[in-house]
Every structure is written in C-alpha cells, then in structure tokens.
Recover the amino acids of this structure.
C-alpha cells in the first residue's frame, strides 16, 4: 500500500505521517516513510537522533547519484538523459532507519512547471513508483502543503490520498481541491483525517462538510503532541492517547484497502 498524506499547511501532515509509519513498523510491516516536502522535517517527528537528522542528504542533492543514474548533469533542462534510470538499489542504500521505519528524503526539485522533465525529477518519480516490492510493504509519503505539486509526479500512482483537515473551512477547501485533483490524475481514493479536534461539534463540522467523502477518523488536540515537537521527540512515543486515535484510523484504512 502506498499512501500520500496531504493537506493545507500546518494541519498536522508530518505528525500524522510519522505516527502512522511507526505504527505499521511496530506491527511488522516493512515501512518506507518518504519525506516529499522540500522543507523536510519528517525525520524529527519519527524520532531520529539530531546528529542523524543533521547528516541527512536528500536524494535530489546527491548530484553524482542523479548524474550517474540518468547520465545527465543535474540542473540541465531538456537535454538528453535516460528516462528509465536504475533505482532499485536506492531504498536499501540511501534510506536511514530508526525505530523500524526506513526514511527516504527526496529534497527539492526545481521544477519548470507541471511538465518538468529535469533529471532529478525523472529519478525521483521513478524511485517513488519503485518503492513497493512486497506484500507487506507500506509507503507513507509526507507531502508538501497545498496541491500545486501533487500533479507533478512523485504522488502519482499512490493508492490513496489522505487529506488531513482541521475543523475549519480553509483546510476543508484544500480537501475539496485534492479530491478533484485526485480524480484528474487517477487517484480514486481520497480519505480525510480530522486533526486538532476539541469536541464532538468539531467532528460533526467536518463530517457535514465532506460531500460524501470518507472520514477515517479524528485526532484530538493534545498538548503532548506540541510538547513532543518542542523536545524533538516522536509524538508516537509521548502521546498515548493520540496513538490510540491513530490506531483507529489505521485500522479503518486497512479495512477499506482490504489489508490484514
Ligand atoms: N493533534 C494535535 N494536537 C496538538 N498539536 C498538534 C496536533 N497535530 C499537530 N500538532 C502541532 O501542529 C504543528 C504543525 O504540525 P505538523 O508539522 O505535523 O503539520 P504539517 O501539516 O506537516 O505542516 P507543514 O505544512 O508545515 O508541513 C506542530 O507544532 C504540531 O506539534
Ligand atoms: Mg509537514
């Protein structure tokens, strides 16, 4: 299963991605967590030690890797390079692992618009479509905020988008846009997770505004989550209540995807 976690800025995509990844790993799945946000910080939410975090080099910054595999110079545009670079060894060789989760940091691709065909982009796109190898593999992609980049490629071919929303109109509007875009690029399943919920009215507000969309569940506002962010810990380790709420969401997702 390959899912992309999307939504408006600051709604809790990285928090949720990290907790979902850790949960699948703890339950014996082979998990690759993909940090697809150029402003990468998934490693911290996964609980990676600071020194490992500081040493992470995004794939797009590995100039030699990109040029070796695509037979092109990075930063070039519309020149000749391989469109089918070898990527199968990259997850094993370039992921960092912690708490059973393998992390892949994609980095920034200077895109020339939606039709970008620079070598970095081709490599990342091919890499992302190669991440699922076995049945018990789960790929969780923590996406950049907003929707502009979603059509560009790395999120194409996912089984589902999960849109994290807050109980407010602005993040729900982002959800509606993602849903439409999902239809346009062939991602049929677009689920919702409500985050920073305070009470039943918040849950109701979200449900009433989904236009037949599917809410996988709700995560309540929790000071422990804030504190974990302040102390560079994984919310998975510090916030038991939130972890149980994520478990309900995870189980619902698996039943909808027919997974055991
Ligand atoms: N359930 C929650 N309760 C309290 N605080 C939360 C909750 N979920 C997330 N937060 C806090 O909200 C802030 C933003 O969370 P996070 O970084 O996960 O959002 P994001 O959607 O990934 O943001 P960005 O768009 O910048 O990537 C963080 O300080 C985080 O600790
Ligand atoms: Mg984030």
């Amino acid at each position: 299963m390959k899912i992309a976690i999307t939504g408006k800025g600051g709604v809790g995509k990285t928090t949720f991605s990290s907790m979902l990844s850790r949960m699948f790993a703890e339950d014996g799945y082979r998990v690759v967590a993909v940090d697809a946000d150029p402003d990468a910080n998934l490693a911290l939410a996964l609980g990676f030690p600071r020194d490992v975090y500081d040493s992470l080099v995004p794939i797009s910054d590995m100039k030699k890797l990109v040029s070796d595999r695509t037979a092109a110079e990075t930063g070039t545009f519309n020149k000749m390079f391989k469109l089918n670079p070898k990527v199968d060894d990259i997850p094993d060789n370039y992921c960092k692992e912690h708490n059973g989760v393998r992390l892949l940091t994609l980095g920034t691709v200077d895109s020339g618009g939606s039709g970008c065909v620079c070598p970095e982009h081709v490599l990342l796109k091919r890499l992302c479509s190669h991440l699922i190898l076995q049945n018990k593999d789960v790929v969780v992609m923590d996406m950049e905020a907003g929707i502009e980049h979603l059509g560009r490629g790395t999120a194409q071919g996912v089984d589902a988008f999960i849109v994290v929303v807050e109980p407010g109109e602005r993040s729900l509007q982002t959800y509606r846009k993602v849903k439409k875009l999902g239809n346009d690029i062939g991602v049929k399943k677009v689920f919702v997770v409500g985050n920073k919920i305070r009470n039943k009215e918040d849950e109701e507000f979200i449900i009433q505004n989904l236009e037949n969309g599917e809410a996988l569940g709700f995560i309540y506002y929790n000071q422990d989550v804030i504190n974990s962010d302040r102390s560079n810990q994984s919310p998975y380790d510090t916030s038991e209540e939130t972890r149980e709420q994520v478990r309900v969401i995870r189980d619902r997702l698996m039943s909808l995807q027919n997974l055991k």
